Amino acid sequence: MTSPQPAPRLDEQSQRVGTVAIVGGTGALGLGLATRWAHAGIDVRIGSRRADSAQAVATRLPRASGGENAVMIDGAPVVVIAVPFSAHLETLRSLAKVIQPGQLLIDTTAPMVPGRRGLRPIMPWAGSAAEQAQDLLPAGVSVISAMQTVSAAILQDLGQRLDEDVLICGDKSADKAVAAGLIESIHGLRAVDCGPLDMSGICERITALLVGVNRRYKTHAGIRLTGLPVTSAKSSLGRPA
After folding, report:
1. Which residues contact 74 (CB under 8 A, 6 or more apart)?
2. Nearby residues of 116 by Cβ (< 8 Å), 6 or more positions away
3. Using CA atoms, how far apart are residues 57 and 50, in angstroms rounded to an integer?
4. What is the C-alpha R_g of the chain?
5. What is the mean pLDDT of each run of 10 residues along the chain (241 residues)?
6. How, if at all, do strands 112-115 and 118-121 pair?
7. How many CB atoms lie under 10 A from the CB of residue 1?
8. How far is CA 133 from CA 76, 139, 159, in A?
């Protein structure tokens, strides 16, 4: 494999992302995101530890390719990590060897462990999964936290209508705007700026609450914030976090 080339600086790009690589793209959430983005006209690179599994998934989607994680993220302007928290640390250490300054990582991980009454949230040593990612990745790689509260099952089913907010956290407004544009390319999702990356632990822990609600009510509820402008929340991303 040739050496990866630095990706273009995201703050020099438009908010329209043409290519996204998904690490863990054969898992439930990764596949759901790949399905929605591929059908929204975005070139999706599906990554996995097993290239054959990723390639098999890619054959079922338009504008998709599949392969080993390191190959798929090479040069992609946006990389999404969609793995369980149990695999988060190992995956990050692997990504740190190949991801380049200028690439943007969107971390969808929700730190949870099985408990006597279901999944329970935990706090990683860095404060959140997203902050753990920022600490472990090379300087110049920005991290955005997002997508923890959106149902993987709903994303995978194109016949299901989405109507919910996606909570995003990050330290750079320009990078949050890029993430918001990618999120809002999925019809029915609205990005909401929730502040800097150190707020991501709060957003991540909501996932465990939603899992319990959905289990009790046998549904796939998401998050919706009231009182916000009806139009896209991207217009607020130039303001201080």
Report:
1. 1, 4, 5, 98
2. none
3. 11
4. 17
5. 38 64 97 98 97 97 97 97 96 96 97 79 91 97 97 97 97 96 97 97 95 94 90 54 45
6. antiparallel
7. 8
8. 18, 11, 33
